[in-house]
Amino acid sequence: MVSDKGIARRGTSGLAAGAAFARSLPIIIGLGLVAWLAWGVNWSFVSNLDFTVIYKYRVALFEGLVNTVWITFASLLLGLILAIIFALLANVRYAPLRWIIVFYVEVLRDVPLVVALFWIHFALPVVTGISTSVFESGFIAMALQSSAYLTDAVRAGVQAIPKGQWDAADALGFTTARKWLDIILPQAFRIIIPPLANIALGYFKASSVLALLSVGELTTVATRISNYTFKPIETFTFVAFVYLVLGYSLSWLTFRLENLFETKRI
Amino acid sequence: MSFDTQIVWQNLPSLLYGLRLTIVIVILSLFFAGVIGVLICAGMLLGSPVVRRISADYVSIFRALPEPIIIFWLYYCSPLILNTKLTAFETGAIALAIPSGAYLAEIFRAGIQAIPRGQIEAARALGLPPFWLLWDVLVPQALRIMIPPTLGIVTILIKNSALVSALGVEELFYRANVLGGQTFHYFEFLTVTAIIYFMLILPLSAAVQFQEQRLSARHR
Prior knowledge:
The complex is a heterodimer of chains A (266) and B (220). With 266 residues, chain A is an all-alpha fold.
């Protein structure tokens, strides 16, 4: 009994000491990192930053932002339409068609967006004979890739609808079109909203990848300004801040949207 | 239009050299990301309120920032700010690690917090020393939860490693572009590159989907 207590006490005290050490460890490492970084920083340069460059190029930056928002919105819209079509086709009782859709989704999910973008811009014209502008290529790449992710989301949403709803629609003699448009899709859409919002946020971020092809969205504009004025710190910090603020407001908005639908359901 | 296999075969060693660099940079930045993830996760779970706040802010900021912005920021700004010069390769590895570290921290935190409190209490009641509590009770259970999302992060890391080509790091995508430009056979090289990325990522993403299905089946 006594020895038991002893073990228990030693165990807990050891645990407490370990916890205290573990608690102070991140602080020690963090302070060490900060000190190391501060030692390596060229402070005379940092104190001479000139943020007036942002004001000078405000029009270009605003145009870049508009392009970012526009290309994200448009490509997601096309992606969603494609995704709904693919999700519907995935329910057709013809196996090869389903395999094609699974293959399409898997290929587009597993190839980096930059590679898809460059493939569409440089390789696709060789096949089709139609050359696209950089903006069109960016739009197509984002629409196709988002359609792959959205197909999965839509399919999961459709699968989440209880069997009873399908049976009820069949029992009431609904046509296939009415069954989908009036019963399945509206309910599925409510389930899809959270993953849809996630994908939308992801593609708002991913649109900056298009800068590698100089599509003309915010990151492209930032790169141009920084190359032209030799003020990369000011430009890129400001643009990062813009992405952060917009991303946060977008996620706040989707959070509110989810809540709205949540209360409606109850 | 015809697919010129001859030219692909001739330049395959160059492409595979790029693939090797892609794998090296992914492993390196995964290691950095793991270190960042463990530190930030410890800060979020064990730190004082200020440290918790900073760790949580790190996660939310770097999850919201686009990766190209982080890469460009480091590449253009670090030579001006820092006294030491980083190579493009180092910049790329660090820039890839920063956001992945934020994701990993969140995965580690979720994995540890998913372990029922009773497991720790039971281990303490049995008088298990702290190290064995960590090694025999917490780690095996947490790992099982952490592995699928961590593999997901690896796939994202492989995809994002193609962005480092913008800095002139000669990895797979950079090689494909250079070879395409030299030979005017963009179609062949970009297609082969896309296939290589696909074959690299497919096993990982298949494993993630398989694991997730198994986990959700067990919970049902």
